Task: structure prediction
Amino acid sequence: MADSNPLQRLKGMERSDRALGSRQLAAMLPDPAGARPAYRHLAQAISALILDGRIALHVRLPAERELAAALNTSRTTITAVYDLLRERGFARSRQGSGTWTDLPEGRRPKGITRLLGPEDTAIDLARAAPGLPGQALIDALAQVTPHLAEHANTPGYHPYGLPELRAAIAERFTERGLATVPEQILVTSGAQHAFTLVMALLCRPGDRVMVENPSYPNALEAMRRARLRTVSVPVTDTGWDIEIIESTLRQVVPQLAYLIPDFQNPTGCLMPEHERVRLLRAAGRSGTWLVIDETLADLVLDVPAPPPFASHATPSGPSQVITIGSMSKTHWAGLRIGWLRAPARLVTELAGQRVATDMGGSVLDQLLALALLARAGELVPPRLEQLREQRAALAAALTEHLPQWRWQLPPGGLSLWVDLGEPIASALAERALDYGVRIEGGTYFATDPGIFEQRLRIPYTTPADTLREAVRRMATALADGPSPSSAARRAHWVA
Result:
């Protein structure tokens, strides 16, 4: 097990290459006797599993003889399967090392999606971020003005965060079932800031990080910029495969794991408690730091609020769990307030890391956050009811206008993870922009863009009428075929 001291890293350790077991792969494949020719049927099934993220990229496939035995078919059939996968670009071979999963050249990463500009007036379904009611902000500003005047006579630098805000966040964790003291809290400029601080302290370029596939795009981009090697584990419509996670932790021994167990972004899945316990044990055995993103944890729509992930750790077990959260999803993304909960010693080191680039957060924002958190019992329930109504409106509009699409209604969170039934997401996103709708295809959420081409993430954070209009426009864009001319585009905008 790695030393719990974050400054004593896993250096020079040989890590095993990831391999997919023959029985594991066979369980995911159809019976080869059910179609002819069998090798094409199996190759297509494996390709689909790669594109859907259920089989990760750069994983060694089973030896031909082993897979043939597991599927009760001939080795000649499996040889033909692997040949076809290589021909189509879904596999490659290394001399003496076997066959590995891959993607065709045309599906490789194309870089980060363009940022929205101030001139962009399309219906925005690319961001899953609700707004803050104006009156709530006005009331909070009036409440904090006298306190701001008091702070104006001080230097205003608080690398750890305002003491009173740290105490309020700690109390919030305690009320949810995880005893916490202010010394375990670091206030940050959003959850993304918290995550980048953690990566900078605990990881070095080349370190491996376990991440869900699909996952939050900005976190994935931060890992790429930090030159970390991501090792993906799939999240499907039914959730996590805990055996794959345990195997990955055991074989790869990642330095860090970034997970969103509460209404996962973008799938909306909620990890069951027994899987959380198993994950904690597996991470403890590998010495992996767990970074748990709880940004969406309060957005419970159909289930009881989940307790903090770290509350499942045993007192005698390892304490290598870092919980990050923010007010972006529950209140307002424009209020750049986030936090992390970690062992007090690590919080001290992270605060030192923070000072090198950021002396401290805005005092005004932190005072506003304190006032809004105090009113959470008043402000959050109406927001949840609004999200339920908007989710229902989106689901109804999709059923009416695009009945061929499929999705699971998530028990919380902010979006639907929609299966289009065919790999057209990127083309549809480009086409929808001509009809005044901005949306991101599923590849944006993939560890290796090029997969999830049959998926769209559709947030339900805008008003119900806007969602209905957006779905109507997407249905029109899909039915109209190729992108319209500039003149047609203007006509659609006017309409």
